[in-house]
Structures are given as structure tokens and as C-alpha cells.
Amino acid sequence: MAKQHSPRFLALVEEARKQVPELTIEQVKEKLDTGEKLRLVDVREAEEYARGHLPGAASVCKGILERDIEKLVPDTETPVVLYCGGGYRSALAADNLKKMGYQNVASMWGGWRAWSEAGFPTEK
Asked: What is the pTM of this model?
């Protein structure tokens, strides 16, 4: 069953999506397959991450991302790709990281759902 998001939340997400680059699941898979240096961050809740996540992804839920990101990614020029369940939370989180000075941050549109439905590699 698809989630029903409120209009104000959707408006906020759409504004964030205009501010940060978005990558498709295929683009992220290609970057991982070619060994491109990037930091993959899952911003879903810990329980969601525990059920499955992208290979090599760090778990930093959206609620504490801004507090903890500098420990995980101290260099603001490091390429960072954020993802969540579908791309909404990661767009909001990426926008905040951009405001914090991260220069090479992107959100993966489609998120975990699209990645897993495509049959791409996952970990538990």
C-alpha cells in the first residue's frame, strides 16, 4: 500500500529536490560497480536498515544526520549519496547537508524500494 503524504510535506520535498542533484538507482549502481569513490549513507531508521540496505552503506538516520555527518564524512568535498525508502527523506537530508557546506552530495531517487525491486545487490 502506497503511503499518502501530506501536501505540505510533498511541497517541502519538491523544493529540496530542486536544490540537490538526484541520481537514479542505475546511476548509483554503476558508480558502485565501477568502484567510484563515494560515501553511501542510508538515512532510514535503524530498523529499516537492519531489514536490508545497499552494500557498504553507512546507517545514519535522518533524525541525527546533521549532528553526526562530520564524524562519518569530515571532508565536505567527499562525494556523498544519500538514500531512504523512496527518495523523499534523502532529498530533505541532502538539502540540509548542502546547507552545511557539503559540496558533492546527491539523493538517490526511488530509494531502497526501487533498488530492491530492481533486484540489485543488498546486505543485511
From this structure: 0.93
